[in-house]
Sequence to fold (89 residues):
Amino acid sequence: MQNSKIKLEKLADIIKRNDPAGLIAGGAPDDEYASETNEIYRLLIKNKDASNLHKKIKDIFVESFGEDTLLDSTSLLTISKELEILLCE
Fold:
């Protein structure tokens, strides 16, 4: 279970660092993406396969913040790539 907690913390850090909607940079609290982080974490627990990971992550953020709020697809792609690495740990 400890490993799961570590991975959740790493996931939260990855999302916060990439700040896909620019909310952290705009002064939002560090846990602004907690809901999305938990949703992505549940997705990863259920499906350890990284296929379509980028699309699934984008869908989660678009549902939460809308397409226009997302800064660009680069941050989401970076999140997806970093999560693929995390899955291999």
